[in-house]
Amino acid sequence: MGGKFSINLRIVQPTRLILDPSLLLAFKRRQMNDLVKFESFIRVPEIFFDMIGITRYGEARDTWKARLKQAFFWSSYANTIFCLIIEHIYFIKAAGNFTNFLELTALAPCIGFTALSIVKIMTIKLNEAKLNGILDRLSDLFPRSHLDQDRYRTYNYNLESQMVMKSFSILYMILIWIFNLLPLVSMLVNYISTGILEKELPYFMWYWYDWHKAGYYEITFFHQNWGAFDSAVFNLSTDLLFCAIILLICLQFDILAYRLRHAKGDYKELEQCVKLHQSVVELSNQLEGIFSPSILVNFVGSSVIICLVGFQATSNISAFDLFKFILFLISSLVQVFLLCYYGNKLIEASSQIGYCAFEGTWYMADLRYQKSLLFVMTRAGQWQKLTAMKFSVVSLASYSAILSTSFSYFTLLKTIYEPSQK
């Protein structure tokens, strides 16, 4: 009987591993020593921070390399502001003539995109110390053992983070380089069909010199590409870091929910849960204090940008312009959706705490534990949420409101434009 029991055990155990994908995944990760690192959640935004000269999390700030990066950042920032200024000058001159309404509505989204990028990156730059403090605390709370990472589904969080960030980054980079390089394609097509080389620039900007001349054109083309790339990276890196921090906070709420559900009447464990809850709530409040002004600017600006880009995409424009404005529209919709989705995710993660506390075996604990748990459940009833300066909650409902507002602006613009065109 002993030998037979031993044989059956060897047969059944691998079969259970094969039938349960989560156990199989955990087993493979242990075999490969595949621990999820905290840094992997912020790796993608930090790659873009490197591109624009912002010091990475945990990197020394008193070295010559850090000083060179600072100089590069401020030069990029100054160039972006310069691009915004000459875009405004061009817009004012064109608006004074009012000869081409489509040209004005094509320029306005680019101005809004650039202005929004400047606001966002200054949010990061002015709050570097606070953001590093938030990341330090989240790093201290991060689960680092195989057992904890399997228990709290850390690998799933990391997988979502990598998929979303890489997909969004690819979309944004395709957008900006199509805007930057499409004039070269248009010039080539025109040259092949007509034999005449007509120089084009990616964006409408005012210059005090004739940029058509040899040498001037190349410098101007590079200047516009540099400014546009910086604007895209300013927007992209800020949004990705914002989403990464929210995801890490949601992970901590899930850890708290799991621990409350399995506390089993242990008062010391409940005390640790209360401290964790206080820390996560404080981190969430700090995050809102940092990003709330830029979120308000983002929501207001995005409503106008989506409206104008949609207007361009539905107007009588060339195939090249139609393609790039449709891509611009998709990117704008995805960008706002990403912020609202993760804001909604934070609300959902914090709202589960009270329910998970109730799901535990509190009825088997003493009266002291039950009274303390009641206070936890009462506090957990106040869900954590991010706001746009208290005007709007960052959630999927806000996304619906932004789309509704954009469509209202779009309808009004089409109503005004089409009769005047006739």
From TrEMBL:
The chain crosses the membrane at residues 71-92, 104-122, 170-192, 239-258, 295-313, 325-343, 391-412. GO terms for cellular component: plasma membrane. It is a multi-pass membrane protein. Coiled coil: none annotated. Keywords: Membrane, Olfaction, Receptor, Sensory transduction, Transducer, Transmembrane, Transmembrane helix. It is found in: Cell membrane; Membrane. GO terms for biological process: signal transduction. Pfam families: 7tm_6. GO terms for molecular function: odorant binding; olfactory receptor activity. The keyword Transport does not apply. The keyword Thylakoid does not apply. Belongs to the insect chemoreceptor superfamily. Heteromeric odorant receptor channel (TC 1.A.69) family. This is Odorant receptor. It comes from Aedes aegypti (Yellowfever mosquito). The lineage of its organism: Eukaryota, Metazoa, Ecdysozoa, Arthropoda, Hexapoda. The gene is GPRor8.
